[in-house]
Amino acid sequence: MSVFVQITIKPAQQKDTDFILKSSLFKAKLRSADIVDWRIRKRSIDARKATIKLNLQIEFWLLGETRTQPQSFVPQAVHSKPQIAIIGAGPAGLYAALRAIEAGLKPIVFERGKDVRARRRDLAAINKEQIVNPESNYCFGEGGAGTYSDGKLYTRSKKRGNVLKALEWFVHFGASEDILVEAHPHIGTNKLPAIITAMREAIIEAGGEVHFNAKLTDIQIEDNAIKDLKINDTEWKPFENVVLATGHSARDIFYLLHKKGVHLQAKAFALGVRVEHPQHLIDKIQYHGDVENPYLPPASYSLVDQIDGKGVYSFCMCPGGIIAPCATAQEEVVTNGWSPSKRNNPYANSGIVVSVEPKDLPNYSEKDPFVCLDFQKKVERDCWEVAGKTQQVPAQRMIDFVEGKLSKDFPKTSYQPGIVSVDLNTVLPPMISKRLRKAFSVYGKKMKGYFTNEAVLHAPESRTSSPISIPRNLETLEHVNVKGLYPCGEGAGYAGGIISAAIDGINCVDAISAKLTRL
After folding, report:
1. Which of 81, 131, 372, 437 has most Cβ atoms within 10 angstroms of its Cβ?
2. Residues 154-183: pLDDT tens digits?
3. Burial code of 109-136, b = ≥16 C-beta within 10 A, e = fewer?
4. Which of 176, 227, 209 has its CA nearest to residue 86?
């Protein structure tokens, strides 16, 4: 069994493997002759004090032990194996397909959007021409929302499944091994497409199928069990097991399920704004003025507080990043953030959002699964209207927002479609704006310099998670009243990012495989 030890080093020492090995051997009370191999298992920055340090976890294999090998993807030929349908080619859908191939099942993936490369033209159209393709955008298409909105791989979902396996599969398909080491692993939007393509090619090579521009438009249920799917309003396709991995923005799927009598529930989510600071300012704050240190990456931050009984927190923080337009329909605006692999843009952005519970809303009804979705949609449309009914978004400098002043001008923003000066207090719901005003003042005390008019708020940040959950049996993972239907990933309310969605895809296919084994 391997031995772990923790050491602390200076940032400038992170490439000095001899020093790291000697220090960790000393800490573990071992000699070089006692071990057969070693590696850095985890690395994180500790910038809480003026002297910045790196925390390293070192793993040793002692004499007589064998180094643990990565959990590589091990395909089977599935050309003539039992078929399962997978709706959506985001991380949940792709990992479900890969796991199906390992398990000897043939995945048939239906993705409403385009392949990962063809998506780029539609992203350019929304950024430059402000044209939203409702089937191909930052949320819909191969790889899902994460492909062109950052590729953060950090998750707190340790109990949901094998996080290391999910990360090692990314490495198998081309990601850097650094993601196995960093405390907050990140691939970058510029590198994800090649990895996603490699996954798809592996699925097809093994005998699976991946269909693009293939939208689920109807389902047939008989005797409380899934029977057929209709794609693009054409012919019915028989499937007895369906992994529904459509993501948090596929609202038409929620309406379709509700129409067919599939039980849905309103779910808590969060809504607020995306805040952009100059990256050098965040570096100065987080690194105590040590902004010229070549061994430190662009700084990030994490903020959370309870404001008037509700959590207000940072979401999807992107150092060296860009704010992107993430609407999935023409008459709405939505913001999100992403970073390239080097995180070398001059801006730092993060969602600052307020928790929203179904019972918080004035028209709440226990029987209405759409109460949070309707709230989300209204905010997105209101912001679209006040900003001129384009993909420009309403914006305001931070201190101006807190003081209720209209911003007269703005620094340069990374949001390509552009921004319009609006008092966000007049467009955001009071339950959101009131808490955000208080939170920014609190955060300015936690991070000296954060509360500044150099920061610009872009509204809204509204797609933090699905506002609807699709309930499932905790043991079988099937829907509570439709057998053979496996709600999966973020869109069903069972994940909160790329890795947790990927793990949920694996778990759903494992549940299908176990069921088929019992039959």
Report:
1. 372
2. 776 555 668 888 999 999 999 999 999 998
3. bbbbbbbbeebeebbebbbeebebbbbb
4. 209
